[in-house]
Specification:
Layout lengths: L1 H8 L1 H7 L2 H32 L9 H4 L1 E3 H7 L1 H9 L11 H6 L5 E3 L2
Antiparallel strand pairs: 1-2
Helix pairs in contact: 1-3, 5-6
C-alpha cells in the first residue's frame, strides 16, 4: 500500500523514470488493496458490534452510551476494577440522579 501510494503520489517521477505499466500496476494494486482494507474493517466492525456472541443481537452502547457492567467486567477487567474503585458503576438497584428525575432504572455503567 505504501509503495503503490508513493508511486501514485509522485506520478511525474514514476512516469519519467519507470515504464507506464508500473504506474498502471500501482493504480490497480492500490485500488484493490484499499477495497480489501475497507471490507476487512467493515466485516471486523460488524462482527464486534453485531455478531459477537457476547453482545448478540446488538451492542446497544452506540444507542445510549452505556455498557452492561457484566460485559465490561469480562472484556476489560482492569478498567472495570478502576471504575469500581472510583464508584462510577451503576447497579440496577441504584438509580442515578437523572434516573430519579425521569423514573428510569439504570442497568449499566457510564463510559467516561
Amino acid at each position: 500500500m505504501t509503495v503503490s501510494g508513493a508511486l501514485l503520489w509522485f506520478n511525474n517521477f514514476t512516469l519519467r523514470y519507470l515504464p507506464k505499466w508500473v504506474s498502471d500496476a500501482a493504480t490497480a494494486v492500490h485500488y484493490y488493496e484499499a477495497l480489501l482494507a475497507t471490507f476487512s474493517i467493515l466485516i471486523w466492525h460488524f462482527y464486534m458490534v453485531i455478531f459477537d456472541p457476547l453482545v448478540y443481537p446488538m451492542d446497544t452502547a452506540w444507542l445510549d452510551g452505556k455498557v452492561p457492567a457484566d460485559h465490561y467486567r469480562h472484556s476489560r477487567p482492569g478498567y472495570y476494577r478502576a471504575l469500581d474503585r472510583a464508584h462510577l458503576i451503576e447497579f440496577p438497584g441504584e438509580p442515578t440522579e437523572g434516573a430519579k428525575e425521569h423514573g428510569d432504572q439504570c442497568r449499566s455503567l457510564n463510559s467516561p
